[in-house]
Design a protein that fits this description.
About 30% of the residues lie in helices and about 10% in strands. By secondary structure, the protein is α/β, with parallel strands linked by helices. The longest helix is centred in the N-terminal third of the chain and has 14 residues.
Length: about 325
Amino acid sequence: MIDRKIKKTALLLCIFFGWFGAHRYYTEKWLTAILYTATLGLFGFGWLIDIALIAADQFLDASGQPLLKAGDLAGGTYGVYAVPPQKVQPVPVPNAPTVKLTPAPVRTVQPAPVGTQPVQTSPVRKMVTRFYTCPLCGKEQAQYIEENKTFAFCISCGQKIDLTPKAVSDEPKARPISFTVTAYNGTDPFIFISYAHRNSDKVIPIIAKMQADGYRVWFDEGIDPGTEWDANIANHVRGCSLMLAFMSKEYLASENCKDELNFARDLSKNRILIYLEDVELPDGMAMRLNRLQAIHQYKYEDQKDFYEKLYNSPDLQSLR
């Protein structure tokens, strides 16, 4: 995982030193940076095009993320490991069932231990959550709240919980907290998570739920600092027993995500497509992936049914 890069720095490097690829070294696009050095910025044309792309906010770093602008830094610098707290504005939902929610003490959800394998410290992704007692299973678990939505999901059982004003107006406000998810680090078979970072708010809760249920899950937060990103990703794709690819518009627009999926296909790895939204695959990709199992997560009103469908996959049986 690379740190987010600053647009102003990249633009200045491109203007003054772009003829030998300084801005591409800065954004860690190593191969094209070397190519620019060898060809004087692809004979000057690539240099001029990159200036225009950076100025128009169309230039992406090596992880497929846009460069940070001055406005993004006004309230503090946000790296790839943190998502700033979002204020949820609940809106009434017609005919929504009312569930009385009881605030519970703040706790930290830790991934379930896997055998006797030592767990090494990995970077922590912080997510804004609220605590409630689940009306279905009765456990006090972190309830992940999607941005601009009026419901939450119990990490323990997947139950959907109503968060409309009618359901929670008589209860005190729950306190925003953080829970941790860490990438699996061991020698047993594991699951590789392929996702677009812009979908972290939807993917991280699924990872937390799977880890709580005992599954061995690796995602790119487990890359050790100082190691080469591409090589580390390739090694984990090669070593995994199953890839879960979370399909979305952002996923299809990310070259890194498509590289991971294609590499897994070349290695004949088992793959399951999980659709976070209704997207249509390009013809070439659809032809290559039409035989894979696909689960449309966005269609499930009750997330408990989604996890039941996912866990019933034969490919997951030996991965916890």
